[in-house]
Backbone:
């Protein structure tokens, strides 16, 4: 069971060439800059646009294949589409909007599942209203509910948060997390916001100028510094999973365990589930040859240099495996199961410290630069 | 309260009936044509557009004359309708309704088309991903969303029909109780020596009718807008 997309299509100023394969669980972020062809790509998957050629499979069902002359219309593809602008039907009530798809689908969701979704989204009190009387966040929740009640095989989300302000985003994000963790439906989530990727996604497809450049797990992809949309970015970095081991609410910090290393981050509350996701930007990681003392940074982590990439003109991206390799063991580039951290330093620093592969050094990270996100279940 | 004479009532009711039938019978065609013009992309769209607007620019008398040529009992179309369905348009109120329908057709089409073009195309895409086919989308989205335009068009067309004179008198003549609508009755009264008072009364009746129509359309639009925003 999976989703396969392999298409080519002519867009306005460039060709769209997409080729990727994603598992049909969890959230896959389709990440790329504005105008890179993301929306066209999910319109093609939904059947709203027809590509020139290629093959699309959703949950092992071929919905498009130009050689076999298969091109299922959008209404038969069993996709749930949440648009950027909600697109609720203005003349229908919230309730009529919600059941629009469900009424037209022979394979309905069981009633109790429908109620669970409506309750989770908190839209039961809105049922009798019309879309004009809803706030932006409410509209997007109803739109999400409408797509889910139609019982789709895949949920396509086209920058569902981009029309909302920060507070509304924080209101909606937990619903996506709930869906990721409690429903088996795969989601393809279009975004150009790296924080949404780091917080929500399990997998990631990177697209630039109409070409899908790479796809893989979000931990692996966010650590890659060779992909144009990520590499040039201010916020290129690493996503790590960790566990809350203790807390000091008085000092407003939480203590985490990440692959045997202790991390100190801003207080994360007392969630039922101790698993958290950390997003650490490469530019926030310092490298020290000896463990520094008497500094404000809370995290001094022993790491081993596994890769030095010199693709940028003035900076160097360094991959750091957590922990010091035992002496005499041959170092190699692969992650070896241990999480890898990335540091972006100037070429001058790298030269000054004479950094080389296999060296045991220390990564220094200020707590306040770490974005911690409580996850609902183990990642 | 000024009471109406039987002839005045006759002309009034005839006018209302002819205009009502004209608008209602033309409505489905107007929706069809407006949909084709607003949403369809086909060769000949420009020609269809031009034909629909023809009654707006042609002199009504010419329209009446063309109808007479086309639907007279000895004309090919007219005789076929007469022999096959026993439908006769000439010298009959149904002919007046046909003339009114054609003359007021562009008003209906324009209003409906305008409201169809204002519907956000993204809504159709959303409906499509939710499993609605083209016919389903037409009835669940297109029609209800175009309703304000349909009603506005129907009221404008109704008002235009009430005032139609040239096409009716040319096509179906001026027969009391059959084709003598309010404008024709006013014309007849003016032609009759000593008919000035009768003409004035009929004119006042026409003006009252026009205002009633305007008021009705305002109430209808307000109701629809309230429903859409409730």
Residues:
């Amino acid at each position: 069971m999976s989703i396969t997309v392999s298409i080519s299509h002519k867009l306005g100023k460039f060709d769209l060439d997409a080729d990727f394969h994603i598992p049909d669980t969890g959230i896959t972020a389709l990440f790329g800059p504005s105008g890179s062809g993301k929306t066209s790509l999910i319109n093609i998957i939904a059947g709203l646009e027809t590509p020139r050629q290629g093959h699309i499979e959703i949950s092992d069902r071929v919905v498009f294949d130009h050689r076999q002359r298969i091109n299922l219309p959008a209404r038969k593809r069993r996709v749930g589409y949440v648009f950027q602008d909600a697109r609720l039907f203005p003349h229908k009530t919230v309730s009529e909007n919600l059941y629009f798809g469900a009424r037209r689908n022979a394979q309905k969701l069981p009633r109790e599942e429908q109620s669970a979704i409506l309750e989770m989204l908190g839209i039961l009190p809105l049922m009798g209203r019309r879309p004009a009387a809803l706030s932006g966040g409410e509209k997007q929740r109803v739109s999400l509910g409408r797509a889910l009640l139609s019982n789709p095989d895949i949920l396509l989300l086209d920058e569902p948060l981009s029309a909302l302000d920060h507070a509304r985003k924080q209101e909606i994000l937990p619903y996506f997390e709930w869906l990721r963790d409690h429903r088996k439906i795969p989601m393809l989530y279009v975004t150009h916001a790296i924080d949404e990727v780091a917080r929500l996604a399990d997998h990631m497809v990177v697209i630039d100028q109409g070409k899908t450049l790479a796809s893989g797990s979000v931990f692996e992809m966010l650590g890659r510094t060779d992909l144009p949309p990520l590499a040039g970015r201010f916020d290129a970095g690493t996503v790590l999973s960790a566990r809350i081991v203790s807390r000091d609410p008085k000092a407003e910090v939480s203590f985490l365990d990440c692959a045997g290393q202790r991390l100190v981050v801003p207080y994360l509350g007392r969630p039922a589930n101790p698993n958290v996701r950390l997003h650490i930007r490469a530019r926030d990681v310092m490298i020290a040859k000896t463990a520094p003392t008497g500094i404000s940074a809370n995290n001094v982590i022993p790491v081993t240099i596994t890769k030095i990439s010199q693709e940028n003109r003035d900076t160097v991206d360094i991959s750091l495996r957590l922990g010091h390799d035992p002496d005499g063991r041959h170092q190699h580039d692969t992650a070896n199961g241990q999480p890898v951290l990335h540091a972006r330093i100037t070429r001058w620093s790298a030269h000054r410290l004479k950094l080389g592969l296999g060296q045991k050094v220390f990564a220094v990270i200020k707590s306040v630069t770490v974005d911690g996100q409580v996850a609902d279940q183990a990642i | 309260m000024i009471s109406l004479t039987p002839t005045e009532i006759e002309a009034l009711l005839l006018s209302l009936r002819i205009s009502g039938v004209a608008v209602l019978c033309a409505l489905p065609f107007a929706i069809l044509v407006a949909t084709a013009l607003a949403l369809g992309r086909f060769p000949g769209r420009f020609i269809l557009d031009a034909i629909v607007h023809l009654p707006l620019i042609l002199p009504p008398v010419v329209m009446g004359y063309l109808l007479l040529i086309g639907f007279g009992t000895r004309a090919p179309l007219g005789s076929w309708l007469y022999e096959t369905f026993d439908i006769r348009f000439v010298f009959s109120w149904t002919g007046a309704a046909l003339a009114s329908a054609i003359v007021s057709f562009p008003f209906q089409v324009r209003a409906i088309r305008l409201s169809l073009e204002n519907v956000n195309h993204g809504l159709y895409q959303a409906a499509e991903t939710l499993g609605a086919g083209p016919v389903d989308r037409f009835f669940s989205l297109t029609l209800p969303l175009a309703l304000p335009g349909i009603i506005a068009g129907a009221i404008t067309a109704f008002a235009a029909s009430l005032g139609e004179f040239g096409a009716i008198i040319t096509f179906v003549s001026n027969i009391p109780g059959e084709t003598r609508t309010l404008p024709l009755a006013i014309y007849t009264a003016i032609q009759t020596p000593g008919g000035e008072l009768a003409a004035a009364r009929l004119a006042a009746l026409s003006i009252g009718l026009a205002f009633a129509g305007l008021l009705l359309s305002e109430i209808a639009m307000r109701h629809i807008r309230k429903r859409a925003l409730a």
Remarks:
- The radius of gyration of chain B is 20 Å.
- Chain B touches chain A through 22 residues (CB under 8 Å).
- Chain B has a mean pLDDT of 88.
